[in-house]
Structure formats: C-alpha cells, structure tokens
Structure of Aldo/keto reductase:
Amino acid sequence: MTPAVTTRPVPGSDLRIHPLALGGNVFGWTADERQTRAVLDAYAEAGGNHLDTADVYSAWAPGNTGGESETLIGRWLATRRDRDRMVLATKGGWDRGLSPAAIRESAHASLRRLGVDCIDLYYTHRDDPTTPVEEIITTLDELVRAGKIRHIAASNISADRLAQSLAFSERESLARYVAVQPHYNLVERADYERELAPEAARHRLGVIPYYGLASGFLSGKYRPGSPTPQGARTPDAHRYLATPQGPRVLAALDLIAADRGVAPATVALAWLAARPQVLAPLASARTPGQLADLLAAVHLTLSPRETELLDTASAPATDTPPPTTGP
C-alpha cells in the first residue's frame, strides 16, 4: 500500500501542494488529449493536486497557437468533482511581455481556456525589464482583488527584480509573490544557488523548480556515444554530457538507483525535493508509466551519504556544495 502523502504549505498563502508538481508542457504536444487525461487521472488518483501550465503551452507543436495545454486541463477539470482540491497554476507574459494590458488579457484568456473563475497561483512567466515592477505588481494586485487570482508568483526573474517587486508589495500593501519557479536541477545549480536562492530564503518564498530532470537528461536516457533517444522533446539535452558535471551526475544516479531499486529520475527528483526552500519539483510525463517514476520520488528519502555523493558530483566548478537541509 502506497504511504499517504503530506502536502506542503506555500509560505504566505493558504495553498498546500503535493510534493511533486505535474507540468503541463507536454499536454497538446507530445501527449494528445487521451494521453493527457490518462496522466492527469493517474496523478490525481495518487493524491497529486498541483497542476502547472502556461498560456504558451504547447505553441511549438505543428498547428498549435498556444493555450492547448490549458484547454486540455480545463476539459479534464470539467469532468471531475474535486476542482477545489486541485491547486491550479498557470503563467503569462512569455511572448507578450508584462505591460498592464498584456497581463490582464493573458490572465482572462487563461481563465477562459481553463474554464475556472479563479487561478490559484499565477506566475509572470519571464520578467519584462521594459515594464517597471510597480506596474506589474499593481496590475496583478488588481486581479487578486477582483477574485481572478488567489496568489501570485514569478518565474525566470533576477534576484534584483525579485527584491524590487517584494519591496514594492510590502511598501504599498499589495499582493506579494509567494513562490518562484527557477531553472534548477542537478546539472543546473550555479545560477539559482548563487543569486536567487538567497533572496528566496530571505523572503521565505516557496521554490518550485522547472526542468527538474534537465529535459530528460537526468532520467538516464542520454548516454555517452549513444544516439539521441527517438521522440526526445529536447534533443539538445545531450549537451550535458560535455560538461564536467554531466557524466559524474549520471554515474552517481546510476549507483544510487541500482542500490535503491528505483529509476535514476526518481533519485534526481528526490535530491531536488530536499533542497532548501524547495516545495515541489516540477516534472512532466506523457504516460502513466513515466509518471510512476516521478511520483516515487515523493517516498524516497536519500541518506546523508547519498546526498553528499550527488552534491559532490553536481557541484558547479570552484563552488562548495551548499547545505542540504530542507525547508
């Protein structure tokens, strides 16, 4: 019998999320509607409650224009009676910037596609340096006050702009970012840990990293001398093999996975879930079978020796591995 999963509170909010966030970037792209529903059903049946998508997913698929992932999730939600149990996160601003008009239009379009009255967690998908943080926060606050958004968050933002945004929210008593979504995993540590992590810790922000498996590299399907796996979503993940950390990390994952009887992906996500401030790694799956390896990370606690092995293998050049204590 699978142990019950304890949800984690998002600081500064009334949200509690499952320790594995399910990414919707493949829905409407490499997963059609039937596959999408199967993955969503399996995730919900396992106790999962945190769905993450964006208004641009999956614009890169032939014939798509963006919003397909939100639409499929919305159709699935409409068939269920437990909408209130789900923490629904989406993002706007990737391709249109973050002017007040763009934010309002993007948020309302997402609400229509998702078929909901309120988005639980709304992210600025990437920062727009041409728009002052004061305008961004003020517009997001308007949407919160109007009941269209419960809480706000930021993805792909610099530590400096994040600090400016939080200071303005505090000064003006406006809606405040409660979480950040950075690019962070075993082979992408330096940028987040040097700059954004201290800011997130200082302001007690929840961290929900994307690319938890480094575009599939940490699943172990990319190997030295091997061809790119058929159907790979991001064939450039092979580039990690040319880094000092890439082969070392794969070797460490293989060793621990074999000892524990789990998949390398499970070990990689378990390491990420235990990092300071991290509430839930974000990962996606095209099939329930792939999802099973991701969900297994929730029940895997790495030993200090295993954690040290991964910390050492993945440490950025000249860096000392940071503390591994959880939030």
Summary: The radius of gyration is 19 Å.
